[in-house]
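Putative [LysW]-aminoadipate semialdehyde/glutamate semialdehyde transaminase structure dump, as promised
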Amino acid sequence: MSEDQYLGNLYQRFPVTIEKGLGSHVWDTDNNDYIDCMGGYGVALVGHRNERVVNAIKSQIDKVITVHSSYYNKTREEFLQSLIAVAPPGLSQVHLNNSGSESIEAAIKFARKFTGKKKMVAMKGSYHGKSMGALSLTFNPKYRESFLPLVEKVSFSSYGDIDGLRTVVDKETAFVILEPIQGESGIHVPPEGFLQDVRKLCDENDSLLVFDEIQSGLGRTGSMWASEHWKTIPDIMCLAKGIAGGVPMGATLVRPDILSVMKKGEHSSTFGGNPLACAAGTATLHALTQDGLIDNAKNMGQKLFNGLEDLKSKHKIIREVRGKGLMIGVELKFEVKDILMEGIKKGLLLLYSGRNILRFLPPLVISEEDIVKTLQILDELLTNEENRKNA
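structure tokens r here:
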């Protein structure tokens, strides 16, 4: 694990050296096979080495890799057309960037410029990134406290509590930002009616509504956008993670009247919209819309959720199962670190949220066979953990 001497202490590291991947599986340098329920924190959306994405990348490399957005490019145009074709109604313009944090930063600037207001409201439990603007909207003190003061005029309200939100949103609020399903804080699904009520509250105060669909969007929850489950359309939507099949890309979707207030040069991205990422992005969107991956996320997600609920009835260590589609959290009564490490030994890569929540973000191509095997391994891991706690 010689990377550590160069990368420092910035990442939680696991003792696996991944050599290759295919679909919902990865292999280490000793050719050990793992079911990947971590999925690169959701980046491996359409599967490792998705055939459409690989072929698109190979083809684009033989043409041109980088073209700045001050020039036109047909590959970029094709991607933009494909993205807007599946975007929520009204969000017909895009700023292309390279990551989730960059997408959030763009949203902050667009919303504040359009409204002329400075106040921003985010949710408790939120995660929007670690660059300074995005970090200012991220709730967890462990990410924030070393970098105070952050951007001013940010308030936090309890997720799902519309009455509490009404006490902090007013006519001076530029925007409210939220994840339709909270991810990093443990997969929290909003109560029925909450998103619709937030939409109405924003309209009443001439404030914009920003949805962070970086983790929940693009089919992850069994619908193209998580917000579709509650039939709510934002003014700005932030995307990244798996949007280009593993190639770095972010996108900020926006209403044209909002983007129209920005002057040339007020916001840009050197790498944003490069043809390589755009080719991969178009292939990713085609995989989602033409290969049945969104339906698979819905169906396999339901099988996984039901199986986890069965495990909950068997294992008292499980407190709650939450989520939609293939975005699922399992809250335990103890820390999950030992389960994560033991899972590696049994060929299962899992993700965590905080100290006591297992998070499942597998590729949307995952098979029923892999769901069954995942549940079998997790059953063993939970049994072993309970035996250790009771020893």
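Residues 4-50+292-390 form a domain with the Aspartate Aminotransferase, domain 1 fold (CATH 3.90.1150.10).
lmk if u need the other ones
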